[in-house]
Design brief:
The protein has 408 residues and is of the alpha/beta class. It folds into two domains: 141 residues, Aspartate Aminotransferase, domain 1 (Alpha-Beta Complex), CATH 3.90.1150.10; 241 residues, Aspartate Aminotransferase, domain 2. Helices cover 41% and strands 13% of the residues. The protein contains 14 helices and twelve strands. The strands form three sheets. It has a seven-stranded mixed sheet, sandwiched between helices. 50% of the residues are buried. About 2% of the residues have low confidence. The structure holds pyridoxal-5'-phosphate (PLP).
Length: 408
């Protein structure tokens, strides 16, 4: 059986590779401290969990969800309410909101809805993997725009070759940014919309981390910019803000024509979201927001603990202003390693799993990412192991028998 060429062109999915390494280490008795995936470990708001329980007994709850049924209508209204509360953006719940089965699903289907084989998608690199893999899966042409630390990880759209811009159908943005943790101000979005004004281009903003800001101004929505809705849609997810990653619920909002095609594409692939989850998600978006604030405080504390610790043990790292990640350059003495080889070494030798920078695209090389989904005691333990590892100088860089503590 031959897989489609589109699929053959995909690199192995980063987290699958790292999962394999973790499994191997665990099979050898290593107690792996897992910072590899941005998979929140915190509890969702209790009233939301309660609402889910309650919903299971509602009449018709186990049937397919329908666009015009009360539960789905209420969810769309809740999304519009949330957008207005957070960003002051007014949306029509019936035409400018599309719930998704996670934003990863929505982003992949957006590419499928719009990319022809001769269309280019402009994707800043590094990026969250579905931003570029979604384009490859849809059979479009990927055009990486390198984003660099010295430019605050913002793409320079005005310097793109004219022909590239002409052939481009989609631009993906995402700030606060995974993996680099970079943020952007509304002025950046204003420039983007100014750049797009005479172009037929879709701007998709992935705002997964808009709540996760530790310092500086709040995150803006691109839809706050006048005229943005002509070109733009935005994705948000309940996975991070509300610690509901396994629930698979997110949404896209913005330009109604773009959303219509997204909804059409989805209608051929899925039957929407389990209604009990929609019911509970409505409570998450409209109810008390204390759990979100607490989660932000926890990630902020964890980031300070990890970054202060890394700096103390000789791994120079910057404190993130936002997200739930720490993005680190590979220490100088390991700079002959690719980010994948260094990740492998860290798992084998220190029992600490991170995500290699290249999992986020070519321009992630030279970096690794820590996801702050590990409680403070485990971060302390990871720092002790990393200190030993760095002191060893990766003496056993070839990665022989694991040295990390055995699990009990
Ligand atoms: C930038 C970004 N977008 C989307 C997602 C996926 O979110 P969801 O759980 O809604 O699919 C992630 C998950 O880590 C992410 O970092």
């Amino acid at each position: 059986m031959h897989e489609a060429n589109r699929m053959k062109r995909l690199p192995p999915y980063l987290f699958t590779v790292v999962d394999g390494l973790k499994r191997e280490a665990r099979a050898q008795g290593v107690d792996v401290i897992d910072f590899s995936m941005g998979n929140p470990d915190l509890a969702p708001p209790p009233h939301v969990v309660e609402a889910l329980r309650e919903a299971l007994d509602l009449p018709g709850i186990h049937r397919y969800s329908k666009w015009d049924e009360e539960i789905e209508r209420n969810l769309r209204k809740a999304i519009a309410f949330w957008y207005h509360e957070r960003f002051g953006v007014t949306l029509d719940p019936d035409t400018e909101v599309v719930p998704c089965i996670g934003s990863k699903e929505g982003i992949a289907h957006l590419a499928l809805a719009f990319m022809n084989s001769d269309d280019l998608a402009l994707i800043p690199s590094p990026a969250y993997p579905v931003h570029f893999n979604g384009i490859i899966m849809a059979g479009g042409i990927l055009y990486d725009i390198p984003i660099r630390e010295e430019k605050n990880y913002l793409p320079d759209l005005f310097s793109l070759p004219k022909e590239t811009t002409r052939l481009s159908k989609l631009l993906m943005l995402s700030y606060p940014h995974n993996p680099t943790t970079a943020t952007c101000g509304i002025d950046f979005y204003e420039q983007v919309i100014h750049w797009a004004r005479d172009k037929q281009i879709i701007i998709a903003s992935d705002l997964a981390y808009s709540d996760m800001v530790f310092r500086g101004p709040r995150a803006s929505s691109i839809l706050e910019v006048k005229g943005a809705i002509k070109h733009s849609i935005e994705f948000h997810t309940l996975s991070k803000s509300y610690s509901m990653p396994g629930w698979r619920i997110a949404f896209a909002v913005g330009n109604r024509e773009i959303l219509k095609s997204l909804a059409k594409t989805k209608s051929y692939c899925d039957f929407g979201i389990f209604k009990a989850i929609q019911y509970a998600a409505t409570k998450a978006l409209t109810g008390p927001q204390g759990t979100v604030k607490k989660a932000v405080e926890i990630y902020k504390k964890r980031s300070a603990l990890l970054v202060d610790g890394l700096n103390r043990i000789g791994w120079p790292t910057k404190k993130p202003d936002a997200t739930m990640y720490v993005w680190c350059r590979i220490p100088q003495k390991f700079s002959e390693h690719t980010s994948m080889a260094f990740t492998e070494l860290l798992i084998r030798e220190a029992g600490v799993a991170v995500a290699p920078g290249t999992g986020f695209g070519e321009y992630g090389e030279g970096y690794v990412r820590f996801a702050l989904v590990v409680p403070e005691e485990r971060i302390q333990e990871a720092l002790r192991r990393l200190e030993r590892f760095l002191q060893d100088g990766g003496a056993r860089k070839g990665g022989r028998r694991p040295k990390a503590r055995k699990s009990k």
